[in-house]
């Protein structure tokens, strides 16, 4: 099969099924065929992703193509540079086939906050694919592409992976450069891959990770393959996420099956408690909204995208933002500016930062005893479109198990662990020690 023949298959499949699923905002067909033609067979060994079609979440810049963040404010924005992570995929031989749908500025858990359209879950078109990287997760689940990129600030790779029955990996904070990723909450944002199998995400991660001079928070991470048996690891089951309210019986049942499986293989498993995890949601919604309110200040009608002219600069500013941002984005900007305003900073942002440290400490303590921590990726399987749109809090709750991992900057992966009685996929989350991404992937690969 040549790269061109593979692309014929990919675009045929997308054209046949994507009108129902709506994974893609933009297809880069002409570009893709040009790349396919230029790939040389003698580079096959040196380029690990040679000829592999890849989809990119539409909040990652790709030079010459629209990067909308699913927002009206960036509807016609064409970046003049490519994000480091995407460039590294291209340099490794990957062929970018399109940009995928998301919740506006990656704020949400269902893609229903996209200003353009909602993506459907390929397992049940009435249901959401999760979010915010729902377009990428559904594109892999529908087998349009074997690999896609996402960004994960509070669960946006792992939760949609869980809802769509694919693998989603959020690496340790800093291992993949954020250069060219439209910022949501900079201390939490992390780029990572979706794949059909753990080995797919491992390959994409190996290519994307490592130091980048364009991102001062990027880490000189070097992936070193490990060859260690799953039996040598100790596993902790997070009590707070096992016992918490809101977890479906079938989701918990799937977790019990995993525990039974580990025990039958003589792997050490025990329940472990992280008492401050119960504060994760309020901490996250203070830290993330505060950082978002500051990051989104750049959309002022002057530098990027939409401009709705008013009689002076102030009116232009407020009209542009008033018409350009959707309601969830506005809600977050308001919450964030409130939490950061003078007189409230100490009570909200500072307090949240302190509790964040307690959560980090809980993980550190747990990792003195265990190599990996496990829990369900999400309390439920994919919910119906419209079910949670009128109640933001219930939407926020779907990330209760993924958010603590971002607050602590840890690597976390979601792998399929069965399905419920409606045939909807359930995901298992495995959390690793910081910069121990290689062992986490080794463990997940053997468990898969
Ligand atoms: N659902 C969470 C939120 O709305 C997480 C989003 C994300 O990880 N980008 O903030």
From TrEMBL:
Q: Carries keyword Protein biosynthesis? A: yes
Query: What is this enzyme's EC?
Result: 6.3.5.7
- Catalytic site positions: 57 (charge relay system), 132 (charge relay system), 156 (acyl-ester intermediate)
GO annotation terms (biological process): translation
Keywords (A to Z) from UniProt: ATP-binding, Ligase, Nucleotide-binding, Protein biosynthesis, Transferase
What catalytic activity does the UniProt entry give for this protein? L-glutamyl-tRNA(Gln) + L-glutamine + ATP + H2O = L-glutaminyl-tRNA(Gln) + L-glutamate + ADP + phosphate + H(+)
- The domain of life for this entry's organism is Bacteria
Q: Which InterPro entries match?
A: Amidase (IPR000120), Amidase_CS (IPR020556), Amidase_dom (IPR023631), AS_sf (IPR036928), GatA (IPR004412)
Domain Amidase as annotated: residue spans? 5-441
Q: Name one GO molecular function term.
A: ATP binding
Q: Name one GO cellular component term.
A: glutamyl-tRNA(Gln) amidotransferase complex
What task does this protein carry out?
A: Allows the formation of correctly charged Gln-tRNA(Gln) through the transamidation of misacylated Glu-tRNA(Gln) in organisms which lack glutaminyl-tRNA synthetase. The reaction takes place in the presence of glutamine and ATP through an activated gamma-phospho-Glu-tRNA(Gln).
Q: Which PANTHER family match?
A: GLUTAMYL-TRNA(GLN) AMIDOTRANSFERASE SUBUNIT A (PTHR11895:SF151), TRANSAMIDASE (PTHR11895)
This protein's assembly is summarised as:
Heterotrimer of A, B and C subunits.
Similarity remark: Belongs to the amidase family. GatA subfamily.
Name it: Glutamyl-tRNA(Gln) amidotransferase subunit A
Native species of this protein? Thermodesulfobium acidiphilum
Q: Which gene encodes it?
A: gatA
